[in-house]
């Protein structure tokens, strides 16, 4: 993989749009999240509005469940939602038509086809069926109650273990963590049911969440992601399907959608 | 799943054999690891010998790589191996014949068939082909160098993120963590290449590793695991393939081998 990336061209990378980038500042550092409005435009817009209303500032990481999710924010904090809506129609799936979908050749337990759309892991029924983002490590979703239309983005979670694919098409995924996943994944596990913290002092405070576009240019974390519609990315997939490092004795010859690295680097 | 477990009979559970149980004591608590000698008899025996030679006592957690592995011990510490061998023939696969294999009905990216053997996630080519343990979250393997026969168990790792199935059949899996995974998974990530800690003080010391059989009965952690060759376990799989909780809108109808819970409880 290192060889493939070393041979990449500048045009194989794209900058991360500041309008689709959230910075969550914790004492331990900045978490950078990229939103995916092709799949969840309403949730992305609501997150921009919630962020601009400073909804998350002073809230906390409320849950850390081993091999499941870390969660933050609150669905109903006594704070202003600003321009944001209190609940959104589900964005669990969308039509596959119109997406630049780089398909993986290998079988998947859960979906007819898996692959990548603009740097995000995804699945689809068929090229003309429905498509959805998938719950790989580092993917960010919007919590909801039993009502499918009860999510708003005010409560978010990130996958911190094995992919939780049974959640696919049941909840809205809206983005992924590009930087700082190591901070979230090592949060002490909560001792309450479903990994919720039981005492306020166990929670990690969120200093602030800001939209990168609202942050002075000099203070931004400028990242680039490898485009997934490039020959370089196809070469990367192949290099991971058939590892040629001397260490490997039996290359798998296959790969699952959540095992393909999605490279991120600092913008040059 | 809670309903299925509540309806389980005492005979659906088996005690964990003290001869196949390692206790790794850290300041943060005891990690309990069950060995799997049906697949890795030589590595299990070597771990008993290394443990009895107190090989691990005073060594440390040396590596914590995000979404990959946490690793401990050392291949070549200046300590006595006691009765243990310095290197073992690989135990990457074994014949499937003779195993009580509870097969999953769903397709898998990497193997012709996946399922469970005596409480461990596994795969096989066919009922008469080869079989192997798989790299799910919490599975423990024996590190090795490039030579397939260079592992000994003196260096161990545990999967701390998405399943690393590309390692299947390339390295010897020897057990799984039954208790304390939350301690290992939240180890601060190492900043060196591959998540190795760079400074000695970043490492978490291992106070001791003992075989449960060598620990006074009163000091043991007595656990039971749900037998995977029971109707109760088959019912549990079904309850997870098709979630009927009100929250789920689209039951997956499928499950991958690393998403099936393998219940553990305190012995009664």
TrEMBL record, chains A, B:
SUPFAM superfamilies linked: Cyclophilin-like
EC number, as in UniProt: 5.2.1.8
Key words, A-Z: Isomerase, Rotamase
Coiled coil segments of this chain: none
PPIase cyclophilin-type domain ranges (all copies): 27-211
Isomerase found in the keyword field: yes
Family annotation (Gene3D superfamilies): Cyclophilin-like
Main enzyme class: isomerase
Top-level taxon in the UniProt lineage: Bacteria
Pfam families xref list: Pro_isomerase
Record GO terms (molecular function): isomerase activity
The protein, known as: peptidylprolyl isomerase
């Amino acid at each position: 993989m290192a060889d493939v990336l070393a041979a990449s061209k500048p045009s194989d990378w794209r900058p991360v749009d500041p309008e689709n980038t959230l910075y969550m500042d914790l004492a331990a550092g900045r978490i950078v999240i990229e939103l995916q409005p092709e799949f969840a435009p309403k949730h992305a817009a609501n997150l921009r509005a919630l962020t601009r209303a400073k909804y998350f500032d002073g809230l906390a990481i409320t849950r850390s469940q081993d091999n499941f999710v870390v969660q933050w924010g609150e669905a109903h904090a006594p704070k202003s939602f600003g321009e944001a809506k209190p609940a959104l129609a589900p964005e669990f799936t969308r039509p596959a038509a119109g997406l630049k979908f780089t398909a993986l050749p290998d079988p998947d337990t859960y979906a007819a086809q898996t692959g990548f759309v603009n740097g995000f892991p995804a699945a689809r029924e068929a090229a003309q069926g429905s498509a959805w983002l998938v719950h790989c490590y580092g993917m960010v979703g919007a919590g909801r109650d039993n009502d499918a239309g009860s999510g708003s983005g005010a409560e978010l979670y990130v996958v911190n273990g094995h992919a939780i694919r049974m959640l696919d098409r049941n909840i809205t995924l809206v983005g992924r963590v590009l930087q700082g996943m190591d901070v979230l994944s090592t949060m002490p596990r909560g001792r309450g049911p479903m990994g919720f913290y039981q005492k306020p002092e166990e929670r990690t405070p969120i200093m602030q969440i800001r939209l990168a576009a609202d942050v002075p240019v000099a203070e931004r974390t400028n990242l680039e992601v490898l485009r997934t519609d490039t020959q370089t990315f196809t070469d990367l997939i192949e290099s991971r399907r058939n590892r040629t490092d001397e260490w490997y004795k039996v290359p798998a010859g296959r790969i699952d959608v959540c095992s393909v690295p999605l490279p991120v680097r600092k913008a040059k």
